[in-house]
Every structure is written in structure tokens, then in C-alpha cells.
Amino acid sequence: MQFIDIKTIHARSADTIDAAVAKVFEHGRYINGPEVYALEAALGEFLGTPDKPLHCVAVASGTMALEIALRALGIGPGDEVITTPFTWISTAETIALVGATPVFADIELETYNIDSKEVEKVITARTKAIIPVDLFGQMADYPALEAIAQKHGLKIIEDAAQSFGAEQNGRKAGSAGIVATTSFFPAKPLGGYGDGGAVFTADPELAETIRAVTNHGCKERESHYVLGTNGRCDSLQAAIIHAKFPNFRDEEITLRQQVGARYSEALKDYTTVPTIHPGNTHIYAQYTIRPKNRDSLGAALKAKDIPSAVYYRKPLHQQAVFADLPCAKKDFPNTDKASQEVISLPFHPYLTADDQDRIIETVIEHEMAT
Predict the structure, then answer these.
(1) Distance (Å, rounded) from C-alpha 56 to C-alpha 73?
(2) What is the tens place of the pLDDT at every residue in 120-170?
(3) CA–CA separation, 132 vs 160, rounded Å?
(4) Which residue of 27, 238, 333, 365 is most buried, as measured by CB atoms within 10 A?
(5) At what angle are helices 235-247 and 34-47 packed, to 10 degrees?
(6) What does the alpha-carbon distance between residue 147 and residue 132 come to, in Å, rounded to a whole number?
(7) SS3 for 87?
(8) Those residues with Cβ within 8 angstroms of residue 42's Cβ, 6 or more apart along the chain or in another chain
(9) Residue 284 and residue 295: Cα distance in Å, rounded?
(10) Any long-range contacts for 217-226 (C-beta under 8 Å, 24+ apart)?
């Protein structure tokens, strides 16, 4: 059993992927080939509406997407950006990489997403933006966060690396905030076969700046008007993601939700299953529970050849690289509790009922005996 069965997901689109990759080899435009623009158009239409698609810029990785978004908004030295300490380091390291200061706010224990009430407590005169992370596959509380941002004149950058395909009150993940980012790392809901990401916005002028920042600050060749970087998505990766996208859109989103719902229905009386915020759908980038004893459950699963994983065992305020941040000295009780208790079960859209049952039975047996 695989924790995420990428081979099975690939098989559903293998012929289409092979044909798309072959076309790239035929035309030889490995950078800024037509596949990049086709992917951007498809994703922008998916997140927007047919008559008003979002602007999409495909980039080299989810991490680069965040850095580009920050640079395009002019965030840098002297600025503070609020984010969650319970996430992968990319969200906070990109803030530091542009010269700004990460400021952490604790999470809601129920959803693992940033707590809007905690966000408002740490806003200062230097705060310029909030980066909520749609952790594990559902969107953060954007109505509350947007009200706070409007009140204090802040920008919201949605980190939708784990939530692409989810929705909130009919709005798709990747369409919140002034700008949003996502990742196509292979293990993500819409994964490529290497690194890749995208930046989204409804603002045409900001989209132009994002595209320039992605390409060394250029609007025209050798004309650099803003400090940029090399953040381009290559044509091969774009071809693969574009080829996989129709199956993701038309089949995998629904199947992921069905697998997640089956897990939750079977396990809800025995352990803490994912809480879905009202108005949200969940894409389950990871299916994450809080058992009575994480270590013993991990051992019980391993004994039956069932893989598991922990996201995130060491939160960001405990990381050595951020030890000098003033906020790292503060308490984040919900983050600390989550980091000590969560464990993620095998999950992908084609996880068979038999495999699900094996996993469910093992978890129930463990929880009843603990």
C-alpha cells in the first residue's frame, strides 16, 4: 500500500501525458512554450468564471509562487507578514527571503488553519499582509480574515498549496485574497512530476507585475523595471500538469471527497477526524486525525504494512532558523498540541474500499485498546 499512489493517478492520464510531452520535444520550446500559456488559461478559467477568468502565472514551484507574490506586492525590509506556525516552512521562509519579518499567529485546533482572532492580536503598524495557509485541504476562514484585512488596510495572500480543488461558499481555493498561490509538487492534489506552482489574481495590473517578477523583472527583453527572479515554469512540467488537469477536475475532486467522507464516517466515533468548517469543502491533501496516542498508532499501522506520516512534527516557532524572531518566544498552545498529536493516513482518490477498510479497522482497534 502506498501513502499516496502517484503511479495509479498517473495511469488515468498516461496517454494524454505522453502525447503532451512528445509535442514539447517536437517544437523544442522548453521555456515559455505554448503549454505554459495553455495551463495558465485552463487554471484561470477554472478558478474564475468563463466570462471573467482569473489571471494565472505558472511558476517553478509553490515556494517560488509565494516569493513572487510578496515581491509583486512590494513587501520587503521593515514590513511584517502574519502567518501560521503550523505549516511547511516555505510560507514563512519566503517572507524572510524578501527581507520582511514573519509573525506567527496560533491556529484553530478544529481545522488546523490560522485563527483570525489570534491574527488581530499581533497586527502592528508594520504589518503589511496576512498569509493564511489552507492546511490539509480546506480553506481558512476568509470572511473573517478579509474583514480584518479591510479594517487594518492589509493584503491577503492565500497559500492554497494544499487546497487546490476545494471551495468555500462557492468560491474556489486559489481565488481568495488579492493574490493566491498553489503548488504542483507531486504529492499535492494536482501534482506534477517535479516542482511547479502558480500565482493567481483578479487584478490585471498586479498580474502584469507578477509575470515580470517571474521573468527577471522583464516586460520586454533586457528591460528590467522591477527586481525579479527566475521563477518560470518549464514547458514540460506545464504540459504534464495541463494533461492531468481534466481528470483532476472531472473525477479526482469528487473521489477525494468521497474517500475522505468514508474515512470520517467510519472513524468519527473513535478518534478526532477532520472538522470541515461550515461552507467549506475539503480536498484532503492529507487525511489527518488526532488519535489517543500517535506513536502507538503509527506502530500499529506499520505492523500491518500500512504507511503513515506526521505533518508537522516541529512547528515553525520551534525551528532554529526562526529562533531570533520575537514571536518565536511566544506560546502557541493549539499549534503545539496539534504538532504533538496529529497523524495522516494513506490517501489518494483511487484508494480502494478494501484498503480503506484495512486502515479503518486498524485505527479502530488501536483506539478501542488505548
Answers:
(1) 16
(2) 999 999 999 999 999 999 999 999 999 999 999 999 999 999 999 999 999
(3) 9
(4) 238
(5) 40
(6) 14
(7) coil
(8) 242, 245
(9) 22
(10) 226/71
